[in-house]
């Protein structure tokens, strides 16, 4: 399947095993994601967090030239989707500075900012062109 399919209809694939090819990026601070295009999109909803299996950092470091190279990769793993955003607003009465408290639903990745991820990876390989 394509990254575009996962991004367009993430609810349809939530909890399912997927096999997807895209641009794997570890070059951004606190990021390890997959995307459809070589150029990094400004909209984080176009990104899929990739949860790297424990003890795989050394291999990943070698494949990405010490985390400095964007690579085309094929990944097989479990896809997860979670709505990220406000889930509850509680009014605050009597405070001139605080009108309400907004409770947010966190997602995946650094700071819980991404709404999609691939986890439980069983196959990961770099596509060399």
Notes on the protein architecture:
The chain has 129 residues and is mostly beta strands. It has helices spanning 3-8, 10-13, 57-63, and strands spanning 17-25, 33-35, 48-50, 71-81, 85-91, 100-105, 116-126. Strands 1-2-3-7-4 form a 5-stranded mixed β-barrel. Strand 5 and strand 6 form a beta hairpin. The protein starts with a helix and ends with a strand. The model has no long low-confidence stretch (mean pLDDT 88).
How is this fold's topology laid out?
Elements: H1 3-8, H2 10-13, E1 17-25, E2 33-35, E3 48-50, H3 57-63, E4 71-81, E5 85-91, E6 100-105, E7 116-126
Parallel strand pairs: 3-7
Antiparallel strand pairs: 1-2, 1-4, 2-3, 4-7, 5-6
List the uncertain runs: none
Question: Can you summarize the main beta sheet?
Answer: 5 strands, mixed, barrel
Q: How many helical elements? A: 3
Series of secondary-structure elements, N-terminal to C-terminal: HHEEEHEEEE
Strand order of the largest sheet: 1-2-3-7-4
Q: How large is the radius of gyration?
A: 17 Å
The beta-strand count equals 7
N-to-C CA distance: 20 Å
Put the structure in a nutshell.
The chain has 129 residues and is mainly beta.
Could you name the key traits of this structure?
mainly beta, 39% strand, two-stranded antiparallel sheet, single chain, five-stranded mixed β-barrel, 129 residues
């Amino acid at each position: 399947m394509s990254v575009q399919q996962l991004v367009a209809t993430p609810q349809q694939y939530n909890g399912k095993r997927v096999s997807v090819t895209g641009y794997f990026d570890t070059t951004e601070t606190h990021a390890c994601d997959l995307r459809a295009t070589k150029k990094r999109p400004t909209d984080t909803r176009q990104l899929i967090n990739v949860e790297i299996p424990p003890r795989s950092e050394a291999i990943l470091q070698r494949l990405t030239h010490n985390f400095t190279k964007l690579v085309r990769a094929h990944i097989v793993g479990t896809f997860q989707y979670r709505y990220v955003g406000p889930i509850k607003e509680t009014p605050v009465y009597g405070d001139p500075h605080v009108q309400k408290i907004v409770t947010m639903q966190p997602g995946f990745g650094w700071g819980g900012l991404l709404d999609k991820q691939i986890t439980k990876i069983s196959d990961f390989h770099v596509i060399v062109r």
